[in-house]
Amino acid sequence: MQYYKFDFHPTVFIVVFFICLVLFYVITKFVAKKKFNSRQFLYISAFIFYILSLIKLTILPLVVFIKQPPDLPISLYYSYIPFENVGNAIRSGNYIQVFGNVLLLLPLPILLQLIAREQFSFKKTALISTIATFTIELLQLLIDFATHYPNKVADIDDIILNIFGALIGWFIFRVVLRFKYVSLKLNHQN
User: φ and ψ at 6, to 5 degrees?
Assistant: First the structure.
């Protein structure tokens, strides 16, 4: 069976990252006429890198068959029983699968709050992470149906663990801000 495999190899990833940075810079500076300080540009650069990494981890590699794809059951495209795959992963010692899904969206609320220069509520973070993870899983499912091949499995466990990870990221951001605020307050008192 002949197929094409699309992926972000490291060189391609870096080139796409720099193209995105240049496009962002040109659009914000010359089209939108907005100015960003170097710290804000660093946060946005980290966010672009993070989004490209998400695409690499959740969508790619993408296999597209030239002729007839293998005849596989549609049930391989998704998993809708909560904690079934988590349980299987833990029993088989595949902790990377579990912790990777927790860590996947952990940076999202941190980066968004740094870029927006505001603190998000727990509810807003839960909503953003839910939308993000549902978008990822829906894209995986749509790609599987479009290619007639289970490139990535849309999994309810991924949704649960991704949201949990994003909420941990929100909590970490809150703790760091509180610590930073207390240390700044103590430094001003001395």
Answer: -100, 135
Token duo for residue 92: 């088989």
Q: What is the pTM (predicted TM-score) of this model?
A: 0.91
The tens digit of pLDDT for each residue in 98-142 reads 999 999 999 999 999 999 999 999 999 999 999 999 999 999 999
Domain boundaries, the chain: 3-189
Ramachandran quadrant class, 104 (left: phi over 0; alpha: psi -120 to 50; beta: rest): alpha
Residues 47, 111: Cα–Cα separation, whole Å:
6
67: exposed, middle or buried (C-beta count within 10 Å: 0-12, 13-18, 19+)? exposed
DSSP string spanning 25-74? HHIIIIIS-----HHHHHHHHHHHHHHHHHHHHHT-SEEEESSPPP---G
The tokens describing 108, both together, are 């999202």
Coil, strand or helix: which one is 5? strand
